[in-house]
Amino acid sequence: MTTDTQPQEQIDGFNLVINALKLNGLDTIFGLPGIPITDLTRKAQAAGMRVISFRHEQNAGNAAAIAGFMTQKPGICLTVSAPGFLNGLNALTNATTNCFPMILISGSSEREIVDLQQGDYEEMDQLAIAKPLCKAAFRVLHAEDIGIGVARAIRAAVSGRPGGVYLDLPAKLFAQTMDAAAGRNSLIKVVDPAPRQIPAPDAVNRAIELLKGAKRPLIVLGKGAAYAQADADIRALVEKTGIPYLPMSMAKGLLPDTHPQSAAAARSYVLPEADVVMLIGARLNWLLSHGKGKTWGGKGHKAWGSQKFVQIDISPQEADSNVRIDAPVVGDIGSCVSAMLGGINAAGGNWPKPSADWLGAISERKDKNIAKMGETLAKNPTPMNFHSALNVMRDIIKTNPDAYLVNEGANALDFTRSIVDMYKPRKRLDVGTWGVMGIGMGFAVAAAVAGDGSPVIAVEGDSAFGFSGMEVETICRYNLPVCVVIMNNNGVYRGTDVNPTGGPDVAPTVFVKNARYDKLMEAFGGVGVHATTPTELRKAVEEAVRTRKPTLINAVIDETAGTESGRITSLNPTSGTASNRNKPIS
């Protein structure tokens, strides 16, 4: 007697990876095809995923990282093995430092060859290298474990303090097959990957009592507050207490920068003078002078050592990292702010507003500084300087508050932060905690792909643009609504340095004079504009926003404009100047 047996349907590692990602709502991959993941990119696109292919893995990783910040879902970066993995690792580590959820998935050589160091193609123990540089790292060796590997990576990336996760997939894994039904059952849809962490009631009460007794309170909003997407409650907390607030750069827009309680224009006054400072998703790292030193009053100042801090953070280890935290409130930002707001609401009309003297002193300094800035912005020098060029960008963002503003550079970063007001949350995307160069084009692509459909404007220093400039081809290839504005002053910081030997080589900080970056965009079919006046710049940016065409504007500014290292000259031990020391970026 014979029996007919039907062959079982099989599924391979390629499709298990794709299905695991899709099952968890991860439908976009930023990466660069090559051995051994080329077919994974093809199959992912065929399965309906969006695969955005870059010219360099670091830029793909930066795109994945900022997509994670914008969406609260881990951005996916896919790279080839060894050199490609290393290129992506820079972005992965930057994501971890900035608390952006991201998963770097890299193909790799086979374990048995790597462990015996037999000289495989791009042989490298990638897992060992990644582990100390990210939040978590995992390797999957068997097809039946792909679902668990992806699930663990997702949960690690977004739970607690978000960060970067590495997922190592050896080449041999992709060709492995298993029963399709068993494969589907092996996949995991992660349930509640970032559970709320409710703060302890006594911690909330302690913080409220400290704020109640403050005479000169201040709130500092960090990018953790922006990531939390608890916008309504944060605004209610600020407005109900009447406490002045200072937004860090990527928290700009949580409340409009023009809000009457914003103390940004009086930053150098409020930090040393405040008696109680509440940090919401902000760390007392170098960006806030570690909570001490001249920025906070320095020795001899009346507030020295007497300031008290409330810190809302999901990580208990962050408290006391630089100074004593008198009232730590540990939990996710949304839950903590909600609990604080509940306690404030319970006080009703008995909540003590900040003193009129404190508010008046802040208002006086704000008015003075804003008027001084207005006078500077009203000038129209020839050639343009940072102020006259950025006055145009200030007007453009005011007219188009939904637009994303990507920003990097030294002076281009510092001046834009202080000149261009933001009006909506998570619209300003910049270098963050590490202050790295090269995030510009990756962030711009991600904002266009993972954002809400609004146009993207990237304000770049000419030096910063060089780190990722080839991605303008990517912008053109996908026809993304990105307008890149390069502040071109012929060099790093300035274009005026000279070779002290008189030799033929230009100084290390000097670029090709009068470079036409706009021609680079034209080479790939985009719009290139050479702008030498504010009028030309305004016309070009407005046209780019209107048409949504890939555009690059070469904004020529005075090559003497700018200062060494921007506002962090004090960190450069050979060129610090008294006027720029101890002025961390805000």
| Biggest pleated-sheet summary | 6 strands, parallel
* Uncertain residue segments: 576-586
Question: Number of DSSP helices?
Answer: 22
- Class by alpha and beta content: alpha/beta
Overall geometry comes to globular
Brief digest:
The chain has 586 residues and is of the alpha/beta class.
Structure, explained:
The chain has 586 residues and is an alpha/beta fold. It is 38% helix and 16% strand. The chain contains 22 helices and 19 strands. The strands form four sheets. The protein has a six-stranded parallel β-sheet with strand order 3-2-4-5-7-6, sandwiched between helices. α2 links the parallel β2 and β3. The protein is globular.
Please specify the SSE layout and strand pairing:
Layout: E1 10-12, H1 13-23, E2 28-31, H2 38-46, E3 50-53, H3 57-71, E4 75-79, H4 83-98, E5 102-108, H5 111-115, H6 126-130, E6 136-139, H7 146-158, E7 164-170, H8 171-175, E8 177-179, H9 180-186, H10 201-212, E9 217-221, H11 223-227, H12 231-241, E10 245-247, H13 267-273, E11 276-280, E12 308-313, E13 327-330, H14 333-347, H15 356-378, H16 386-399, E14 404-408, H17 411-419, E15 428-430, H18 440-450, E16 456-461, H19 462-466, H20 472-477, E17 482-488, H21 518-523, E18 527-531, H22 534-547, E19 551-556
Parallel strand pairs: 2-3, 2-4, 4-5, 5-7, 6-7, 9-10, 9-11, 11-12, 12-13, 14-15, 14-16, 16-17, 17-19, 18-19
Antiparallel strand pairs: 1-8
Helix pairs in contact: 1-7, 3-4, 3-18, 10-14, 12-14, 16-17, 16-22
